[in-house]
Amino acid sequence: MKISRLFTSPEKSPYSEIEFKEVTSEILNPDGSVVFKLENIQVPSKWSQVASDIIAQKYFRKAGVPNKTVKREERNIPSWLMAKDPDTNAEDLSFGSETDSTQVFDRLAGTWTYWGWKGEYFTTEEDAKSFFDEVRYMLANQMIAPNSPQWFNTGLNWAYGIDGPSQGHHYVDHATGKLTKSSSSYERPQPHACFIQGIEDDLVNDGGIMDLWVREARLFKYGSGTGTNFSNLRGGSEGLSGGGKSSGLMSFLKIGDRAAGAIKSGGTTRRAAKMVVVDIDHPDVEEFIKWKVTEEQKVAALVTGSKLCAKHLKQVMSACHNCEADGESCFDPSKNPALKREIISARKSEVPENYIQRVIHFAKQGYKSIEFETYDTDWDSEAYLTVSGQNSNNSIRVTDDFINAVIEDKDWDLINRTNGEVNKTIRAKELWDEVGYAAWACADPGIQFHTTVNDWHTCPASGEIKASNPCSEYMFLDNTACNLASLNLMTFMDENKSLEIDLFKHAVRIWTLILEISVMMAQFPSKEIAKLSYEYRTLGLGYANLGGFLMSKGISYDSDEGRSICAAITSLMTGTSYATSAEIAGELGPFPGYSQNSKHMLRVIRNHRRAAYGHSDGYEDLNTNPVPLVIENVRDTRLGIEAQKCWDTAYELGQKYGYRNAQTSVIAPTGTIGLVMDCDTTGIEPDFAMVKFKKLAGGGYFKIINRTVPDALNQLQYTENEISDIVNYAVGHGTLETAPFINHESLKEKGFTQKELDILEGNLKNVFDIRFSFNIFTLGKEFCTDVLNFTEEQLNDFNFNMLSELGYSNKEIDEANTYCCGTMTLEEAPHIKDEHLSVFDCANPCGKIGKRFLSTESHIKMMAAAQPFISGAISKTINMPNNASVEDCMEAYLLSWKLGTKANALYRDGSKLSQPLASKLVEDVEDDEEVEMHKPTPVEQTLNIAQEAAQQAVYGARNKVPDRRKGYIQKAIVGGHKVYLHTGEYEDGSLGEIFIDMHKEGAFLRSLMNNFAIAISIGLQYGVPLEEYVEAFTFTRFDPSGVVQGNNRIKNATSILDYVFRELAVSYLSRNDLAHTDESDVDFALGTGAEEGSLKKNQIPWKIVKKMSSQGYLRGQASDNLMVVNASGDMGSYSEQSNVEQATTPEAVKAGVSTDTMASKVQVARMMGYEGDACPECGAFTLVRNGTCLKCDSCGATTGCS
Questions:
Q1: Partners of 695 in the beta sheet?
Q2: What is the DSSP letter of 1125?
Q3: Which of 143, 231, 925, 1161 could disulfide-link 491, Cβ–Cβ 3.0 to 4.6 Å?
Q4: Calpha distance 618→410 (Å, rounded)
């Protein structure tokens, strides 16, 4: 192969014109402790901190790298290309970590060149040197990146002599063609990211069920992902040869899921990447479809149940101690009414009886509180780790026959695996509905269109394609592998925003060769994979940054032009790659499996070429015609022409030489490698947010508009000043100095000095909402309490809004926030034209006010535009809004099938328990707006009295009760009718709202009471004194009325309203004259938990007690009726020391992060465009969807295999 130089020259180092910088990379725990730190690492100057962190934390070899090496003499290898070993004769020999990015570039490019030379891929030594330099240049300039296993494993032996015992791998010797067992762990690297493995219906033999778990583990250890079609396994209703029934498919899937979850991929902290595929006619397919739905329900049950148990068990414990009885009477529900009530309440919530009794026994032993572990819905939490199905992507394999049966509403047979007989017959549409519901409910399973996949199969004579890798882009025969690389499209864009076609084709040619060499040099985890990968030599060249590429050109992702550009670039890449493959075949021969598949492969190439030339029909042996390239929509004429001509070359060379590779291209999610290339967007995805938070070298983040946005605005003919205004609208000015309403002048009037203003200004540049800067942590406790006069209770309340308390309205805060922090969207920006907004549409709504986002159809149509020009498939998230229906999910699947895509993975916003709704976070709730209430049918007496009471009051602005408030519920029976009175209180204990519920009443009376209570609540919040209502409503007469049961102070009422306002008067106004029994008949006890033993005499913290207790429930008698109870049960004694212990159930653990704090982090992350989950590696809330997987924008962790 001849290799030309377009980036480098023979006289200079490929790094000679690249500026480098020293940076520090570190990972911190949430508490600030250092997990990882590497100082003074060398990276190209234009690399971001994130890219620097990725290479340092993930791709640098951390141990065994010698500081002195010697060449390993080898026959027929040029001196400059010889492998190296540690120089054991050097006196100062030492071992450590890689610290320079050029070490990584050199070992990757050097190893590929070394094996390329051994495999006779280069015509001359000069071609080998050109290859070595061109590759290093492209890596350093982030033009392309191979998949992660290449970075992990390739070159460790060649560059440093690192080696170890064999790990059970095999390879086919390129010189002899013989299958050989590896004797070394690193001499031949494992560079492949994507594997498809077969499985037989056998428990313990080679190729069987338990053997697959071992093979998977071998892959996960080296950072690769694997997929398997499990349809060979018999169903749960099928028999065994020795009698009895099979354990069934699902039991083994759960074992494999557990095994995968226990392995850290790449030998580090990456999660294993796995795909499970099941055919639509498998006997257990219904259970498989519902698998993750059921497991998500289990998570919901664990979360809800644990919180209910914790709540009721603590209440039982409190009831045992808040009691005046002597001896053990407090622990006897027949003698302690409060305990009896809590036991009954716990039983209603189905708290296990033995747990209730256990708590009572704890209380008898002197324990005053109990901890019961509660679970949350975080995706990496104990709740999710407890259930199965969380370590794989699931897909069902559907045929055209099944889809047609759905459309025609026919029956569908589920087939036994052992004898081929019909196991069960169901309506196809019924099964389809189950698929749609599962996708809607939990985003799994995805769908792979079996017929379409195999219509484009280049080697059908060798068997069907049955499965895929975890991300669904690699689809080929079982027991084969694919190594990936992705081109960064933005680095191939010229100053006119056009694709530099010659450079792009040059890169495609070189990297097709690199991936081919990688097949030759690799070792594989099993004999079968080694043999078939050698025979078919599949490659996975793709690209990243399509969304950024289109936006920078000022072209909408959801447009005919955008889709045609995508099709043209994809066509040019794959056509050029196939032409290169044919060129290599001319030198070294076609892949061994080509001869029996040549006519099929040439047919597939002709179909690719026909789509490139824009034909809508005339395809050979396709059940579904593809979406062809519409060259008229491509303004870059040369791009359109080259996208067609490359297939002429590929076909002509293929006819002459055959092809070296059965497949050459896929579009991968480019998770971690996308970050190491500083890509704005991954794979074929659009952008996920207009404003990004970029990581800083010293920690923290800075806010920046997408770099493609100014380019797009410039392409759309906006002036520099207009662009500046639009960018400031999105990002903000980063200061409050001249902001409307909340600015330096107004803050000085509130007591702020220049010192506090400087602190604020330093903090404001990195926040996305100014409310997050106004807190005790930014301004300091002393200033907040002494100058602003806030209490510690206020400052420690997570929901405390300092700006509101300083007197600013929500409208004023929002306007100042927009000026300072921006809107994070271009919607409603100054100067922006409506017709241009679509250019900036993202996968999700942007910012708090953003409403626009790309439609489900736009994602599918972009996939359909690229699919006819891809050997494999496309890994992509198809986003759906939360309000999408089950029917919408099924329609999306059908549209994907009709347009000829090979797979579909839907993600409906909020379909995962771990994520709040994006739509709920971005809706701007107008708190200042008064909700218009529905007026019920009037009861003249009641409404007139209410109006009279309201007219006597003077009130001002509405004072809403806190979102999380205290109060009490009083149940009573008035004249034979059950009445529930709920109260809500302000922090000072005053009444702020009531709810009245009538048990089993007709709709009219029940609704009337509900709405009456709302009217009273609004009046209370606008300042109508409770006394006015009490005077107006007590002694009113109407049915129901009569004897009151269940209330210990009120025994008779002339109406429901008489009863309600007597109860409120007694509880909140100390109007004992309206009660029928004396207050001394009722006592209350409130302990302070495990710390009460340390209270000194007369030092009861009444402020805290009043804040946390309901004044209404205590009848307003806190200081009289509350008493401290120590561990012995004595009342009124205050000892310096106490042996009170805190009971902890065996299952309990203490939570380190409050629920409120976690909820806020999730909300902040979602508003920044992220998913709302914490990264399992670094803990940052910067996970984004990445194809069918997730990746972290902070550390680069991915749940996929790239």
A1: 701
A2: B
A3: 143
A4: 30
| Range scoring the smallest mean pLDDT among 165-179, 687-701, 995-1009, 1084-1098 | 1084-1098
Q: In angstroms, what is the C-alpha Rg of the chain?
A: 35
Q: How confident is the model at residue 763 (pLDDT cuts 50, 70, 90)?
A: confident
Beta carbons of 876 and 635 less than 8 angstroms apart: no
Q: Would the pLDDT of 251 be above 60?
A: yes
Whole-angstrom distance, CA of residue 401 vs CA of residue 927:
54
Q: What is the 3-state secondary structure (H, E, C) of 292-322?
A: HHHHHHHHHHHHHHHHHHHHHHHHHHHHHHC
CB-neighbour burial class of residue 199 (10 A; exposed 0-12, middle 13-18, buried 19+) = buried
Cis ω on the peptide bond leading into residue 686 (within 30° of 0)?
no
Which tokens sit at 310? 């914790």
Rounded-to-10 torsion of CA 225, 230, 233, 235: 130
At 532, give phi and psi (nearest 5°).
Answer: -75, -30
Residue at token pair 């240049």? 137
In this structure, what DSSP letter does residue 574 have? H
Residue ranges of the alpha helices (H) in 658-719? 672-676, 708-715
Residue type present at position 914: S
Cα distance between residue 425 and residue 281, in whole Å: 10
The letter for the amino acid at 882 is: N
Asked if omega into 44 is within 30° of 0 (cis), the reply is: no
Q: Helix, strand or coil for residue 548?
A: helix
Cβ atoms of 848 and 862 within 8 Å: the answer is: no
What 3-state class would DSSP assign to 808? coil
Q: Tell me the two tokens of residue 579.
A: 């032409």
* Cα separation, 620 vs 618, whole angstroms: 7
pTM above 0.90, yes or no: no
Residue type for 856, please? T
Q: Quote the CA–CA distance of 521 and 108 in Å, as a whole number.
A: 12
Report the length, in residues, of the chain.
1202
Catalytic residues, by residue number, are 469, 471, 473
Residue-wise pLDDT for 863-898, tens only, equals 999 999 999 999 987 888 888 999 999 999 999 999
Q: Is 1095 exposed, middle or buried (0-12, 13-18, 19+ CB in 10 A)?
A: middle
Contact (Cβ atoms closer than 8 angstroms) between residue 60 and residue 54: no
Task: Collect all residues with Cβ–Cβ distance below 8 Å to 255 and sequence separation of at least 6.
Answer: 213
Q: Which residues pair with 179 in a beta bridge?
A: 172
Q: Is 366 left (phi over 0), alpha (psi -120 to 50) or beta?
A: left
> Measured between alpha carbons, how far is 1185 from 840 in angstroms, rounded to an integer?
18
Q: Please, what is the end-to-end C-alpha distance for the chain in angstroms?
A: 28
Widest CA span in the chain: 110
Q: Quote the CA–CA distance of 475 and 130 in Å, as a whole number.
A: 33
pLDDT tens-digit map of 960-990? 888 888 888 998 888 878 888 999 998 888 8
What does DSSP assign to residue 1068?
A: H
Give CA–CA dist 1196/815, Å, rounded.
35
Q: Is the previous residue joined to 669 through a cis bond, with omega within 30 degrees of 0?
A: no
Confidence band for 369, pLDDT divided at 50, 70 and 90:
confident
Q: Which residues contact 309 (CB under 8 A, 6 or more apart)?
A: 351, 352, 355, 372
C-alpha angle 1170/1176/1177, rounded to 5°? 105
Answer whether 823's CB lies under 8 Å from 729's CB: yes
**Rounded CA gap, 486 and 670, in Å?**
7
Note the pLDDT tens digit of each residue in 808-840: 999 999 999 989 988 889 999 999 999 999 999
DSSP summary character for residue 494 = -
| Structure tokens given for 346 | 């716990």
Q: What angle do CA 160, 44, 713 make, to 5 degrees?
A: 145
**At residue 357, what is the residue type?**
Q
